[in-house]
Amino acid sequence: MGNLEKIGQITDLWLVLLFGLPTENISPIIGSQISWINLVLLSVIRPIAYFLFFALPVLVISLGADAWLKRRVLEWYSLGHRVKIVFLAITAILLSFQILVVIPVSNRLFFPDVYPNWSFAVLLGIVFGVGIMIVSGVLFAIANHCLSRRCPICHQQMDGRFELGKRHCNQDLHQWLIAHY
Ligand SMILES: [Zn+2]
Fold first, then answer.
1. How far apart are CA 82 and CA 22, in angstroms?
2. Fewer CB near the terminus (10 Å): N or C of the chain?
3. Ligand 1 center to residue 112 CA distance, Å?
4. Ligand 1 midpoint to CA 155 (Å)
5. pLDDT tens column, 100-134
6. Closest by alpha carbon to 125, among 107, 98, 90?
7. pLDDT tens digits, residue range 10-30?
8. Spacing, Cα 86 to ligand 1 middle (Å)
9. How far is 12 from 80, CA to CA, in rounded Å?
10. What pLDDT does residue 10 have?
11. What is the C-alpha end-to-end distance of the chain, expressed in Å?
12. Which pTM was predicted?
């Protein structure tokens, strides 16, 4: 059993590092007594509630926001193939918001026994994540206002969304997306 105890201690340490619990209050997670009801509640009911009512809606909303933003960026015609850089930035920013804000806040709400308090690092991350979101939101609005639906040649405002094969001034928009056979 000596080995198992070691593994338990290492797991505890890993969990503590991962969750940022205060070091003076390390209660053993592995090897502690837990009732059957609590086990079912902690390892079955709450995870199901978490995935069904939180993780799934968050996933759908995130993918929707990602698609909505990228569809708008495709209308920044003067960027040409450089829209790919903006696509990458959108993915990175949405991901950082999930990691820094959404996951810590939801962990605290759904699993308060495992995440009993806010650590300084988590709070700093939340402030940082929200800050990134606000700054990039403002930048996006400005760029969208300047670039959206403008022809790269005549700079006139165009109607309608981008579709493959859309043309202006006798030229394909986003030519790099079109394969000629
Ligand atoms: Zn034009």
1. 46
2. C
3. 57
4. 6
5. 999 999 989 888 888 888 899 999 999 999 999 99
6. 98
7. 777 676 666 665 555 555 555
8. 23
9. 51
10. 73
11. 68
12. 0.74
